[in-house]
Amino acid sequence: MAKIGKSIRGIVVLARPINCLLTAGSVVVGAVAGGLGGAPVDIAMAALAAALITGAGNALNDVQDIEEDRINQPQRPLPAGLVSPLAAIVMVGLLVVSGLGLAWWVSPVTGMIATAVALALTGYSIWLKQTGPAGNILVAALAATTFPYGALVGGDLGRSWIPATFAFLYHLGREVVKGIEDMEGDQRRDIRTLALR
């Protein structure tokens, strides 16, 4: 039972629940900026969809980072052996399917945005992360997207570009800082973040 409990906690940690909550909150802020013209249930479902897709992206990123995390963050669930890579991949699939299903249920527009974000997160984790600053910029852009995404559910884009701009700049700086912290493991795997340029 103790092992099962650790595995469950590991799965939760992989999704980074605080990041998921912040993503959902950003969608709600975007909906407010868009005029709150959408139905409350639609806003809630769009926020949940974004949180689920964020969790999937976080978990997939950890699967791809398992080797450098053995150096940079050996306490993470995958290098620590709390969760197997296969279980993490299954988790990613379940979260993506659930998130996309909710997003398409809300509207075709939110469904298309969520699908594009899910594809971009996959591309980042598998390919773009290793190509240099483009990966950092993509992560920042995806974080900023939550605000116009929520605004479209709430009515129209309105002033969602204001928090989106701040989010882009904040996350771009955060990615650079993370790149500096992870420099040793990234050099071993030849990942070229802005910090290594």
UniProtKB/TrEMBL annotation:
It is a multi-pass membrane protein. Its main location: membrane. The chain crosses the membrane at residues 12-37, 43-61, 82-105, 111-128. Keywords: Membrane, Transmembrane, Transmembrane helix. GO terms for cellular component: membrane. InterPro entries: Prenyltransferase_related (IPR050475), UbiA_prenyltransferase (IPR000537), UbiA_sf (IPR044878). This is Geranylgeranylglycerol-phosphate geranylgeranyltransferase.
